[in-house]
Amino acid sequence: MTWPISYDEVFRVNKHNFNETALKIFRFQVDQNAVYSEYLSLLDISPDSVKHWSEIPFLPIEFFKSHTITSGEWQPKDDQLFESSATTGTITSKHFYTDITWYNKSFLKGFKAVYGDPSEWCILALLPNYLEREHSSLIAMTNALIDLSNQPSSGFYLYDHDGLKKQLEVNENLGQKTLLIGVSYALLDFSAKLNGDFQHLTVLETGGMKGRRKEIIRSELHAELAKGFGTSPIHSEYGMTELFSQAYSTSNQRFTCPPWMRVDLTQIDDPFGKVQPGKNGRINVIDLANVQSCSFIATSDIGRMHKDGTFEVLGRFDHSEQRGCNLMLA
């Protein structure tokens, strides 16, 4: 399969060539992605009318549940995909790929830009519900980071809170820089048992109560975690099954994207109405690493943009009422 852009070109994108690269991938996906092409046709949007990345229409993320989203002439395989978690009776999202190298390069380059080389860290993971299922992109990323850390004490902890506590204490006594990656509800459960003072620990929450706890706003979550771990600020990762790239927040609950990823907000009741900085809206993501699927995705998240380009994630909305989301679900 011939792609319109190479791995290295994607990860050399900057503010000067972002528009050119985004339009190149957009033209390719309109031509080579049947679902995205039909969606634009049903919206009566001519691809030739799109002259800037800010004019590119976003495909509702729900289509990853109802359709196979691929760009290019290749056949999806059941063992080459990422799949979302699901509660009883729900349909999962599936993100197929031909080559996991795109994902590996994307998450690693984004990680290094924020945290440096993984070998500098002992990486611990508290991701019980993800670890118990196949095809999780978060597990794939975390497992690779653990391998790259080259620390024998790095690893996953399923429900072994005692073992995790002991390892954190050992690392603290050694002065070992430690990154604990965890899903929100599991971190809350674990931190409630602590009265910690971990000065060499960074906690990276990846979101996700998954119905196991009452949903709370991120500032409350971080306050609870900071109290339990005795470390602040709490960091956050913004990623999902349908994306190859991640944004990170290291303070103030504001996320920053890598250069090849960009967030744009539209009005909650109008997917084509733009939102000014400081106002709330639907989070749309451009992920140029998603060459094999779709790089232009309208999420189900509500956020707020800031003038410096950072953004907050405020919650989710019921996408069933949004215009444009039901055009191809039959």
The number of distinct structural domains comes to: 2
The helix fraction, in percent, is: 25-40%
CATH class of the largest domain: Alpha Beta
Order of helices and strands: HHHEHEEHEHHEHEHEHEEEEEEE
Write down the CATH topology of the largest domain.
Answer: Rossmann fold
**Main pleated sheet:** 6 strands, mixed
How many helical elements?
Answer: 10
Shape: globular
Mean pLDDT: 91
Low-confidence stretches: 319-330
Bin the strand percentage: 15-25%
Cα-based radius of gyration, to the nearest Å: 20 Å
Distance between the termini: 30 Å
Structural description of this entry:
The chain is of the alpha/beta class. The chain folds into 2 domains: 7-75 and 261-321, no CATH class; 102-249, Rossmann fold (3-Layer(aba) Sandwich), CATH 3.40.50. 30% of the residues lie in helices and 21% in strands. The protein has helices spanning 7-10, 18-32, 34-42, 63-66, 101-115, 128-131, 137-149, 161-174, 184-191, 218-229, and strands spanning 59-60, 81-83, 94-96, 122-126, 155-156, 178-182, 201-205, 235-238, 247-249, 261-267, 270-274, 280-287, 296-305, 311-316. Strands 1, 10, 11, 12, 13 and 14 form a 6-stranded mixed beta sheet that branches. Helix 10 (218-229) links the parallel strand 7 (201-205) and strand 8. Helix 2 packs across helix 3 and helix 9 (184-191) runs parallel beside helix 10. The protein is globular, with a radius of gyration of 20 Å. It starts with 6 loop residues before the first helix and ends in a 14-residue tail after the last strand.
